[in-house]
């Protein structure tokens, strides 16, 4: 059985193509022209004072005795209103205080990059959102699944963060994106529902999207992210995690200070595994306004909801969560949760406001950051105590996985 599994992995790698090394060569490439300046402007003192007491009250109310170990940044029109670094890189040794260059595991906030990378390739005419997965993966074992269904979580595919464990994956072996693809052929876990029928948040979708990015671009996911986003946006503290980064990357901790080590699903990327800082994430936010990175119609497609089977304000676009408030306002955001990492990245396009919280010690209070939206307009979130770490608009919580 083991030999057959190895053969299947090799076969799937062959079906997928040799793209992994396609982007790697010794050619010296010219440095990309930056899309935006790396300078950071701060709001004037009066504006800062107007917001600061409410921000301080939010932290006091929602983090209590456990405190907040992480970084945060709140901005409007690209100008920083409040920024802070609280706690330590290692909450046990407390050797080094957190600073502006400490990159946090974004967990599922990474999906915003994966989603926009696919849309970049779509914008360039290199793929179609209506392509079925058999275009990229020969004889893909689930019918009628399209690229767009991966992006908006309507594929119905089973979630690898659940079924690998159920199907007794050898946890001594690190799973890769190609392993996730191969497992769909070999294990063939049952589909959740007919493709396109409804929404169900699924990390498998974004693991497969990362492979599609690689095949279409001819570059590794890591290279594509660096060359398309990180370098042009001067996000110099951001990177995609590799196994060799384990010792240097920011560790994460459970609420009781138990440290997480490298586990068997930790090398799968696309759904997670981008590390970044609050300042780099502000650059990412601002790049989605200036028109140099994406066309307006691309952003409109990304920030449109696609799941209306159930009533409510929560929805999902193409790589982005949405809260569509009853009064017509829209919150564009994503949360993240992987091991002890909790992250929130919120954009209010109407006010050009940004709310970013990144933590590496598990604390559900981080997900209450949507309350801060009411600092900027009538978003009706101040009384919302729901700690939104779950993964779908119907409020059903996915067991495990990157949220």
From TrEMBL:
The keyword Disulfide bond does not apply. Residues 71-363 form the Beta-lactamase-related domain. Its main location: membrane. InterPro entries: AmpC-like, Beta-lactam-related, Beta-lactam/transpept-like. Keywords: Membrane. It is found in: Membrane. It holds the Pfam family Beta-lactamase. This is Beta-lactamase-related domain-containing protein. It comes from Flavihumibacter stibioxidans.
């Amino acid at each position: 059985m083991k030999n057959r599994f190895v053969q299947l992995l090799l076969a799937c790698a062959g079906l997928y193509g040799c793209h992994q090394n396609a982007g790697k060569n010794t050619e010296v490439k010219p440095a990309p022209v930056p899309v935006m300046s790396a300078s950071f402007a701060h709001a004037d003192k009066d504006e800062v004072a107007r917001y600061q007491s409410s921000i301080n009250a939010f932290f006091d109310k929602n983090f209590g005795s456990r405190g907040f170990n992480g970084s945060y940044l709140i901005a409007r029109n690209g100008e920083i209103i409040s920024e802070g670094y609280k706690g330590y890189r290692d909450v046990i040794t407390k050797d080094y205080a957190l600073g502006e260059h400490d990159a946090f595991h974004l967990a599922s906030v990474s999906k915003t990059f994966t989603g926009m990378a696919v849309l970049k390739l779509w914008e360039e005419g290199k793929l179609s959102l209506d392509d079925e997965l058999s275009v990229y993966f020969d004889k893909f074992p689930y019918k009628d699944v399209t690229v767009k269904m991966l992006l908006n979580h309507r594929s119905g595919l089973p979630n690898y963060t659940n079924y690998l464990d159920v199907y007794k994956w050898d946890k001594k072996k690190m799973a890769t994106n190609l392993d996730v693809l191969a497992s769909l052929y070999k294990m063939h876990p049952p589909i959740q529902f007919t493709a396109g029928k409804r929404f169900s948040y699924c990390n498998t979708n974004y693991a497969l999207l990362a492979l599609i990015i690689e095949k279409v671009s001819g570059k590794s996911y890591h290279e594509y992210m660096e060359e398309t986003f990180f370098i042009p946006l001067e996000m110099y503290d951001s990177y995609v995690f590799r196994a060799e980064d384990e010792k240097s990357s920011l560790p994460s901790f459970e609420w009781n200070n138990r440290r997480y080590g490298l586990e068997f699903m930790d090398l799968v990327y696309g759904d997670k595994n981008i590390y970044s800082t609050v300042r780099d994430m502000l650059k990412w936010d601002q790049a989605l306004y200036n028109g140099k990175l994406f066309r307006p119609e691309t952003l409109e497609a990304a920030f449109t909801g696609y799941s209306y089977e159930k009533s409510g304000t929560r929805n999902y676009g193409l790589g982005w969560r949405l809260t569509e408030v009853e009064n017509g306002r829209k919150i564009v955001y994503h949360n993240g949760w992987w091991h002890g990492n909790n992250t929130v990245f919120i954009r209010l396009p109407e006010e050009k406001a940004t709310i970013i919280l990144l933590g590496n010690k598990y604390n559900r209070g981080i997900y209450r950051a949507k309350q801060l939206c009411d600092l900027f307009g009538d978003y009706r979130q101040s009384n919302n105590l729901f700690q939104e770490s779950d993964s779908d608009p119907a409020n059903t919580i996915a067991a495990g996985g990157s949220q």
